Amino acid sequence: MAVTIKKCDHEDLQKLQKISIETFKDTFEVQNSPENMKAYLERAFNATQLKEELSNSHSEIYFIYFDEDLAGYLKVNMNEAQTENMGDDSLEIERIYIQNKFQKHGLGKYLLNKAMEIAIKHHKKNIWLGVWEKNDNAIAFYKKTGFIQTGTHSFYMGDEEQTDLIMVKKL
To answer: Does 158 score more than 90 pLDDT?
Structure first.
């Protein structure tokens, strides 16, 4: 198995949009209404929004390839790009998604390690993320890798307010 991680740039916009929509739908479509899913996907993954994210100097996005197939991606935020004010000594993992057909190959661990590498390079003391309270597999993965729940915040899927668990790992 060959695993490669590559930083995204503006030339990757269409691939980023495609994998963002696919992995988000695969993960959450069954548990949400079609209307709320459509509204969220259109807001979060439209080309203008993704261009802004790729242009933000405090965010980094990476693709992960499994035997040369695009398998998933990671988005991290620092400083004012964080979705919650967790301080300048923290790095946020905003998105970490692996396509269903590539799950159970340890790719999430590769992306988590990449996030920790970025955090250490930028002298961060913590990494944190928000994970939907109903995403049991992800919560179990984060707990197993040393994250501890420290709070909650609201996440809006269309017009539905949902609860994300805030989980933090000290470096």
So the answer is: no
